[in-house]
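Section 5.1 Outputs to date
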Amino acid sequence: MRDHDVLTAVRALAPALRERAAGTEELRRVPEASLAALDDAGFLRLLRPRAHGGLAAAPDVFHAAVHEIARACGSTGWTAALLGVHPWYVAQLDPRAQQDVWGADPTAPICSSHAPTGTVTPVDGGHRLSGRWHHAAGADHARWALLGGLVADAEGRPQDMRTFLVPRTDYRVDDVWDTVGLRGTGANDIVVDDAFVPAHRSLGYGPVTALRCPGHETNPEPVYRLPYAALFTTTISTVMVGIAEGAYEHHVDSARAHPALAPGRRAAEDPFAQVRIARAAGEIDAARLQLARTTAELYATAVAGGEPTRALRARARRDQALATERALTAVDLLRENTGGSPLRGGDDVLDRAWRDLHTGRGQAANDVERALLLFGRDAVGLDVHDPML
């Protein structure tokens, strides 16, 4: 299977995912049938390394697939994007950790919660983890979890920020996800009670940021030389833009068929509605073009064996944050065209997209002001030190 074959297969799944969108929201998790279909299409193989049966696809192919899924169903797009990007992270780990995951089950889904909300205790041979980690999309489907943690010294001072790979047998999923938007992501809590994580199953932020990871020993493909902050945040923004484009397409189709506003005049003939449609389309196009341009430059740098400059990393964060902002702006404009109907539940598709986008805006990757601050500081020549760069 080639990576573009996966993209074709994912596009063919879109009508079924769209049909299940309301049910996904009601279920509060992605249906097993949807995830199985995406797996059969090869989506979860896109960023898995070739050494473990994956495709190590270029990021534009992965993001194109994410966009198609999110256009059909926001919750499925969000969950699939995260489950799909995590094989990339595992590919950065010690080859023994990769074998732990894919040696036993090449199709094992992996969820994550990177905020360091638990307790990490260094011990001989590794660390012990305890605590609760929040918002792990697709947790019910996952067989492994990537959990963030701060490692402190004997006086309790933080010394290292690490990510720990934990098997499903060492944690439980607490069903607490009950939100206004992205309800179908199943982003429940992960609870760990004193689990041992061997040293080879953790990785500090330093090597990831410096693009010097132990997994490069077995995974030479250029996609694994991308900055994680750029790949992860752009993946999240791709979901947001996909949701907005799906809402836009639905709105335009509805406008063409909408009952007349007055005798002989259709809603589509309202000039102010037409202007808002044009502005929404422009916001979505601008978001897609900026994301594609920066991702292409990052990947070309990796293919050439180089390393991205800090300025390019900062631009990647700027572009993904602005893409998120533009997606929200686009759907807010479309809602203005509907008057009060979304507030009464009159347009389920547009209403769900609006709720999904405003919920997704709360994800740390979509902190627009923080991302723009990084770019601004770099632009004027000030030091920038941030794990999300």
